[in-house]
Amino acid sequence: MLRFLKGVVGGVSGTGLKDLPYNIGDPYPSAWGSWTHHRGTSCKDGDGSPVSIFSLSASNAQDSLLAAARNGVKRLRTVRHPNILSFLHSTEVETVEGSSSRITIYIVTEPVMPLSEKIKELGLEGTQRDEYYAWGLNQIAKAVSFLNNDCKLVHGNVCLASVVVTPTLDWKLHAFDVLSEFDGNNGNATGPMLQYEWLIGSQYKPMELAKSDWVAIRKSPPWAIDSWGLGCLIYELFSGMKLGKTEELRDTASIPKSLLQDYQRLLSSMPSRRMNTAKLLENSEYFQNKLVDTIHFMEILTLKDSVEKDTFFRKLPNLAEQLPRQIVLKKLLPLLASALEFGSAASPALTALLKMGSWLSAEEFSVKVLPTIVKLFSSNDRAIRVSLLQHIDQYGESLSAHVVDEQVYSHVATGFSDTSALLRELTLKSMLILAPKLSQRTISGSLLKYLSKLQVDEEPAIRTNTTILLGNIAIYLNEGTRKRVLINAFTVRALRDTFSPARGSSSYYDVTEIATRILPNVVVLTIDPDSDVRSKSFQAVEQFLQIVKQYHEKTNAGDTTAASTGISSIPANASLLGWAMSSLTIKGKPLEQAPLASANSGLPLSSRTSNASSEIVVDSPSIAAVQINSSTDLADQPVPESPTSTDGWGEIENGIHEEQGSDKDGWDDIEPFEESKPSPALVNIQAAQKRPVSQPVPQPKAQATSLRPKSTVKVTKDEDDDLWGSIAAPAPKTSTRPLNVKSATTLDDDDPWASIAAPPPTTRARPLAAGRGRGKPSAPKLGAQRINRTSSSGM
Question: What is the model's pTM?
Answer without folding.
Answer: 0.63
